[in-house]
Amino acid sequence: MLLYKNSFEQTYYDILSVKEDASYEEIRGCYRSAILNSHPDKLQKTTEMSGTADLDLESGHRFLKIQKAWETLSDCRSRAVYDSELRAARQEDTGTAEDDVRLEDMTINEDDGNVLELFYQCRCGDYFSVDSSELGEMGYAVSREGSKISLQTTTPHTTLPASVVILPCGSCSLKLRLFINADTPTSYSI
What we know:
It is a single chain. By secondary structure, the chain is α+β, with helices and mostly antiparallel strands. The chain is about 40% helix and about 25% strand. The protein contains six helices and nine strands, in the order H-H-H-H-H-E-E-E-E-H-E-E-E-E-E. Helix 2 (about 25-40) packs antiparallel against helix 4, helix 3 (about 40-50) runs antiparallel to helix 4 and helix 4 crosses helix 5. It is globular. The model is unreliable at about 1-10 (pLDDT under 50).
């Protein structure tokens, strides 16, 4: 169970698929690519052929999110304010954790063949846990090949920034800060 679902909400950097330390040129290039791929005029032909209004509404919403991300990240002052607010929000979410662990430190338990649960024992005897479906919501896919477990991003050719997730203990009030580094390929042997 995840305690802070907002700890993995999409940031403007996620929307534009850039790292948080990206240069202005990198942000501009990714913005241009994203805006061209989601522009309503370009997608209008597709929705007219398929006849789905939901797709049109969703693409319009995505287009507006890309625009807002660009407006914020393209201006150095607004980007500095946004980065400051982002850091403050992350410190609030991660400031109360009892322990810091990496994904590699978690133990793996297979629930029903489809869902993999990763857990870490609390000092009270219960566990902190996160399952593969929750990691999927964050943009990570957990897969099993024989006795090897792998973690990849769900969107090919996209790198996600390092994530911090706060996990509560199942019994006591302690919390765990779980670090997931998307740049480092992660695999386990069980």
